[in-house]
Each structure stands twice: as structure tokens, then as C-alpha cells.
Amino acid sequence: MKFLENIINMKISGITGKELLKYGRQFDIYVTEDQAEKIARFLRKGNIDIFDDRDRTMVIKEIARITDPKTAKKVNQLFIQLTK
């Protein structure tokens, strides 16, 4: 299972704004191009482990700051599905 966790975390740490827009449409999570770029820059800055509750909470708080709480809640629900 650790192998898949590493792959998912690597994908997140290298994601682009365009990819976020694509995944957003796929999972019915709306973000603007500017928001997607800001989120992607944030994700690329750090070594984030979405399987760690503290890291995931930090990411969700930053997404809420960049977008809004409703969008962050949808992202959190998606992360929870991915991490179970």
C-alpha cells in the first residue's frame, strides 16, 4: 500500500494548474484558472503527504483560503476517498 501512497503523493507534488482544472471538472469541483495555478504552486512547494492528517488539514486550509470553504470541503471529501 505504501507504494500507491508514494505515487499519489508524487503526483500531487508535481501537479500543474491545468491538471487541477481537468481533475476539478472530472470530480465536479469548480476552480478558476488562477485558483488552480495558486493551488498547484502551493502543492509543489512542500513535501505533502495527503495520507497524514496534519498535512491534509494544512492543504485543505490553504485551498479554503485560495478558493472558499465549500470547494475545500469537496476536495477534502475526495482526499478522504483516496486515502481509504
Walkthrough of the structure:
It contains 5 helices and no strands. The model has no long low-confidence stretch (mean pLDDT 93). By secondary structure, it is an all-alpha fold. It is 76% helix and 0% strand. The chain has one domain. Helix 2 packs across helix 3, helix 3 runs antiparallel to helix 4 and helix 4 packs antiparallel against helix 5.
Shape: globular
Number of helices: 5
Average per-residue pLDDT, rounded, comes to 93
Briefly note the structural class of the backbone: mainly alpha
Number of domains: 1
Q: Into which percentage range does the β-strand content fall?
A: under 5%
Poorly predicted tracts of residues: none
One letter per element, helices H and strands E, the order comes to HHHHH
Largest sheet: none
Number of strands: 0
Q: How much helix is in the residues? A: over 70%
Radius of gyration: 12 Å
How far apart are the first and last residues' alpha carbons, in Å?
11 Å
